[in-house]
Design goal:
By secondary structure, the protein is mainly α. It has helices spanning 2-18, 26-46, 53-74, 92-97, 116-127, 131-137, 143-155, 159-179, 181-188, 200-203, 234-240; strands at residues 193-194, 216-220, 225-229, 259-262. A four-stranded antiparallel β-sheet has the order 1-2-3-4. The longest helix is centred in the first third of the chain and has 22 residues, at 53-74.
């Protein structure tokens, strides 16, 4: 039962991730599979204490089976892929439409843009298959786990818009570093300040879909920066993109204080 449910998730993820790709674009499709496998391994590793080795092996086999089905369908072989009974990740299309050209990676730096929106969606959406999803798939979930899962699924679609906005803020800070470095250092060089103190217009453009109370603060000088979102979305980011959680403000357990982007020298700010 658990493996069957996991296959449904993999099918939904691949369907959304490859929906915009041409059937003959094998390079982009293989890139999707590669990203899916990598993210799947990372999630299984993070959940190793809750998932028995035999179940993890079964999940890997399930993903490979779903990938093989997708390859067969793309090659024109008649092998229908079952539709999931309950459509998951309902915010995926909106996330793809608002997806940035690049996403934050380890250390809060930005990595080069992926090959098209489909690959970006593959990485982001598979990251949404949280520890809670994996852990609860191995046993009957408690009411508490179900509640956590509901809250998580409610917020996952906001990770991409939040990352997109962080990218815009980063671009503005870099522009100031090039053209107004002294002014930037005077305003935000010694302490974190609200984004509006640097660019009020940009601060007003924060996506309205983000959780109430979301705010961005910045500390920056002529060469380095740290750009942070505060807590409302942080618990979701902690599960889906733990590399974005601010190491100086992280806590043990569920929830965190801030996440964002930073340069290497600003990591300890």
């Amino acid at each position: 039962m658990a493996i069957s449910a996991q296959k449904q998730k993999y099918r939904t993820i691949i369907r959304n991730a490859t929906g915009s790709l041409a059937a003959g674009d094998l390079i982009a499709r293989e890139a999707v599979y590669k990203k899916l496998r990598s993210a799947n391994e990372a999630l299984l590793a993070n959940s190793a204490h809750a998932i028995p080795p035999e179940t993890a092996t079964a999940f890997r086999a399930a993903l490979e089976e779903v990938i093989d089905d997708d390859k067969a369908a793309t090659a024109g072989v008649t092998k229908p892929v079952p539709e999931p009974k309950n459509a998951e990740f309902g915010g995926v299309k909106a996330a793809e439409e608002s997806a940035p050209r690049s996403m934050p990676d380890k250390g809060g730096r930005l990595s080069p843009g992926f090959i098209g929106g489909g690959v970006l969606a593959a990485v982001v959406v598979l990251s949404y298959v949280s520890y809670v999803s994996f852990a609860s798939a191995t046993k009957e979930p408690s009411k508490e786990l179900i509640k956590i899962e509901e809250l998580y699924q409610k917020n996952i679609a906001q990770i991409v818009p939040a990352a997109d906005f962080l990218s815009n803020v980063k671009a503005e800070i870099v522009r100031w570093q090039k053209t107004r470095a002294s002014r930037l250092t005077k305003i935000a060089g010694k302490k974190f300040v609200p984004l509006k103190d640097i660019n009020d217009k940009l601060a007003s453009q924060m996506p309205e879909s983000l959780p109430p109370g979301s705010a961005v603060v910045v500390r920056a000088n002529a060469t380095d920066y740290k750009i942070l979102f505060n807590w409302p979305l942080c618990a979701t980011v902690q599960v889906a993109r733990p590399d974005l959680v601010d190491p100086m403000r992280s806590v043990d357990g569920l929830g965190c204080a801030a996440f964002g982007l930073w340069t290497g020298k600003a990591a300890n700010w």
